[in-house]
C-alpha cells in the first residue's frame, strides 16, 4: 500500500495486512505532471504524479493520502481521476 506524506499513520496500513511503500519524487525536470496540476505546486507532488503516470507504482494495491496541505489534496484529486488504482483514500 503506497503512502505519500510523513503524517500517514503507517500502523493502520500494517494493521490492514499491507506493507507500506513510500511514494517518492524525483529530481528530474517535470514532464507530464504540469498538464495535470498547477506548475506552482511543489516538486515532490509533481514528480510523484510523473512517476505514477509512467507506471512506476502500478504494483501497489492502492495509495493512502493525508489531508496535510493543499498540494496533497490536489495530488489525491489527480491520482483519483487519472491514475488507475484499486484503492485510493
TrEMBL record:
Transmembrane segments: none
One Pfam family it belongs to: HGD-D
InterPro entries linked: FldB/FldC_alpha/beta (IPR010327)
Family, per entry: Belongs to the FldB/FldC dehydratase alpha/beta subunit family.
Record's protein name: 2-hydroxyacyl-CoA dehydratase
Species, as recorded: marine sediment metagenome
